[in-house]
């Protein structure tokens, strides 16, 4: 469903952030991308939805080569990719329900956005998703009045509002406490299964990756050094990914 072909990214000439990354992702399940800070995980996620343009290589989604799309064609393709951000990326002065409806911006005419006159079907869907993420009583509350976990629940619901073919998440638990992190990962896994949406998660916490992912991709220095199911990820793989337990990033 999603294919990356020889993906490379350099922000500075001669300094590769991604080096010859080739991966195929199925149309189901949860894939966790792990690795130390600065190894290219976030860049990889952003190359998939073209928030970052790769230096070379190809990104294919559902038979379309995203790296060749521009303008309206690229905007239409991005509608099919939901994104959950590390820092939530909500419009804090808007209400929770209005933030969810932002997930429909690529589908409705501009006049509806300016007047906040969304179709009744979109409004009903937004309330349905709010109930699903446990925030049914928070529809009219401003986003800046929510806790971190509640904000991330809104972010997940907003991404699903796009009716995406693929859901990306960039460090969705890094700002959350351990209990809330488990709740958010459980919610993402379960909603993805219910909606039949494959998920790719960039995550630091190896324990969470092992618990919730059906497949783990380990990266080091911009390259894929492990690709397999969680039960095949051993300590020697983690040493190759993180450079030894002294880093402390994957202990526990």
From TrEMBL:
- Any GO molecular function: ATP binding
Domain of life of the native organism: Bacteria
* Annotated InterPro entries: AAA+_ATPase, ABC_transporter-like_ATP-bd, ABC_transporter-like_CS, ABC_transpr_PhnC, MetN_ABC_transporter-like, P-loop_NTPase
The record's section on Gene3D superfamilies has: P-loop containing nucleotide triphosphate hydrolases
Q: Which residues form a coiled coil?
A: none
Query: Is NADP found in the keyword set?
Result: no
* Record's keyword terms, sorted: ATP-binding, Cell membrane, Membrane, Nucleotide-binding, Translocase, Transport
* Transport recorded as keyword: yes
- Per the UniProt record, the source organism is Roseinatronobacter alkalisoli
In this chain the ABC transporter domain maps to: 2-246
Q: What is this protein called?
A: Phosphonate ABC transporter ATP-binding protein
Q: Which Pfam families match?
A: ABC_tran (PF00005)
């Amino acid at each position: 469903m999603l294919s990356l072909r020889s993906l490379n990214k350099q922000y500075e000439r001669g300094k590769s952030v991604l080096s010859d990354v080739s991966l195929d992702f199925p149309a189901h399940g949860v894939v966790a991308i792990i690795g130390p800070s600065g190894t290219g995980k976030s860049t990889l996620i952003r190359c998939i939805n073209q928030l970052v343009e790769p230096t070379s290589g190809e990104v294919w989604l559902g038979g379309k080569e995203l790296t060749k799309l521009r303008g309206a064609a690229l905007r239409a393709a991005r509608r099919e990719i939901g994104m959950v951000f590390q820092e939530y990326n909500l419009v804090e002065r808007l209400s929770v329900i209005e933030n969810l409806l932002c997930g429909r911006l690529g589908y409705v005419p501009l006049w509806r956005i300016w007047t906040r006159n969304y179709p009744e079907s979109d409004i009903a869907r937004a309330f349905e998703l709010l109930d699903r993420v446990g925030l049914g009583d928070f529809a009219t509350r401003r986003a800046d009045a929510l806790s971190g976990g509640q904000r991330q629940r809104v972010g997940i619901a907003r991404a699903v509002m796009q009716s995406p073919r693929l859901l990306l998440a960039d460090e969705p638990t890094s700002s959350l406490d351990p209990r809330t992190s488990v709740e958010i990962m459980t919610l993402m896994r379960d909603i993805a299964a219910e909606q039949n949406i494959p998920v790719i998660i960039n995550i630091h916490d190896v324990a969470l990756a092992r618990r919730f992912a059906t497949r783990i991709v380990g990266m080091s220095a911009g390259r894929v050094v492990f690709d397999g199911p969680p039960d095949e990820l051993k300590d020697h793989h983690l040493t190759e990914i993180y450079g030894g337990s002294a880093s402390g990033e994957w202990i526990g």
